[in-house]
Design goal:
alpha+beta; two-stranded parallel ribbon; Peptide Deformylase; 4 helices; about 35% strand
């Protein structure tokens, strides 16, 4: 099932998400639907709050970057109840976009390496370091679980310049090829 993506201005995008209980009914179906929604929307990641579910889960697929980094071929992962334990390395700028904020892209500063603790789809805990583009995608999706958006990380001047576009998005005035939901 393809979910509508909640747009900028939706209160759920500003809420800190709750942990997923281990006995969560329909978890496998939710994960499958999140991947389906992400692929349909042509995204690299999708967090549950973006589909109106305030739970600490996100999915990513970094395989589109395999041409530049062959280790990312078939890189597809589920993160349940994640906690970033450390941010490391140089801070780098990278141009980001978001399915919940269509047609806006801005340069965002993020650390190049993270250590994250999370559960997989079978509720097996792992601690792993990720770097490069994968670390960036994870940080972006993790921010959704914390009620943050990439526009919170840009300068106040740039945010002011985007005010009109952000207001239009919050009113549902977008032209995208995927289903969306405003507030």
């Amino acid at each position: 099932m393809i979910y509508p993506v909640f747009l900028y201005g939706s209160p759920i995008l500003r809420k800190v998400a709750s942990d997923v209980p281990e006995a969560f009914p329909g978890l496998d179906e939710l994960i499958d639907n999140m991947f389906e929604t992400m692929y349909h929307s042509e995204g690299l990641g999708l967090a549950a709050p973006q589909i109106g579910i305030s739970l600490r889960i996100f999915v990513i697929d970094a395989s589109p970057f395999a041409e530049d980094d062959p280790s990312l071929k078939d890189f597809r992962k589920v993160f349940i109840n994640p906690r970033i334990l450390s941010y490391e390395g140089e801070i780098k700028k990278y141009n980001e976009g978001c399915l919940s904020i269509p047609d806006i892209r801005e340069d965002v500063d993020r650390e190049e390496k993270i250590l994250i603790r999370y559960c997989d789809q079978n509720f097996q805990y792992s601690e792993e370091y990720f770097d490069g583009v994968v670390a960036r995608i994870i940080q972006h999706e993790y921010d959704h679980l914390e009620g943050r958006l990439f526009t919170d990380l840009i300068s106040p001047l740039k945010k002011r310049l985007l005010k009109r576009k952000l207001t239009s998005i919050s009113k549902g005035q977008v032209d995208v090829k995927y289903r969306v939901k405003k507030q």
